[in-house]
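explain this:
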Amino acid sequence: MADALNGRTIELVKATVPALEAHGLQILKEMYARMFQNPEIRDLFNQSHHGGEEGAQPRALTAAILAYANNIDNLSALAPAVERIAQKHVGLQILPEHYPYVGEALLGAIGAVLGDAATEEILEAWGEAYWFLANILIAREQRVYEELSEAEGGWNGWRDFRVEEVVPESSVISSFILRPCDGEAVIRHKPGQYLTFWLDIPGHPPVKRNYSISNAPNGEFYRISVKREPQGLASGWLHEDAKAGTVLKVAPPAGEFFMEGKPARPVVLLSGGVGLTPLIAMLETLVANDADVPVHYVHGTHNRDTHAMRKHVRDLAAGAANLKVSVFHQTPLEDEAAGDDYDHAGIITDEWLTAETPVGQADYYICGPRPFLRAAVSALSMNGVPADRIHYEFFGPADELLAA
């Protein structure tokens, strides 16, 4: 692989930015249509991100390709995105032999949509640019696969796990305790990471989904806590059909959103709705490790019925003098009691967040819906929290190069 792209390739790729801005989504929809003609490639994807008139994943990937084109002469700016993509690919078990299918479909789509404007020189430049980035990803993914294989309790590929117990956590969220069918150890994940599942749902092609691990690492089992989404194929099947004894295919833990080691600064864990799941893993880890820094857990949800793990968090706080819990219920039920069921009525406001948490000192870990994330990250940034102290994860399609 070349150490750098040649100047002419960079010039040509940057020259296509206006065309990508105008036709990028059409190109990406065409690319996916071409790839999905191959069932083997289609089944690598999380199809829930490709539904609807446009699909969330084509839009996300359009933005990612534009970012690549705009930064092709400054690829260091894309390092966080490359790591996120590589981690997602490892979860989905993407391998080097899958990349040619994507490259062929991408170049074919560019030619089909842009027509005569996609000259041979333009297509050659984009082919070189694609493979330059693909080889960076392949190399990083290979290192991650090796680390996972060599770790205690590690594995590559799909490993069978048995549901040991299903625990209702709220009116919409249930937890699933998973132990490996082979009885061996499991990797001690980094708190915040997720598992990728291959679900065989009758009447459907293989279904791939990511679910955050919601317990501290223990080397023995994993817990996922899943919200039942309206019309959610995978979440509906898990809630209705996955019972004690159900066997699920699981890839090793992955993800670049995690908390590692003992923190040196105060920690604020901020979640909305089912976004609490990776933060519960962090919270349990902080308590188990006797973290000697202040920890503030802040959570927002609709009401007591939708509030998952409420008692569990209160119990953790009761045994940890440095842990403060603040719960917001947007629309409390009539019989809810302030100070017991919740601490604050309404939503987590920017003013409260910046006034009641140590913005000048803490690391923030945030997970929730996109609007929740945008508001929180914006408020913290505008109040001087450095970008490297704001860590966040959202549930939904990201800017994966190959699959989501």
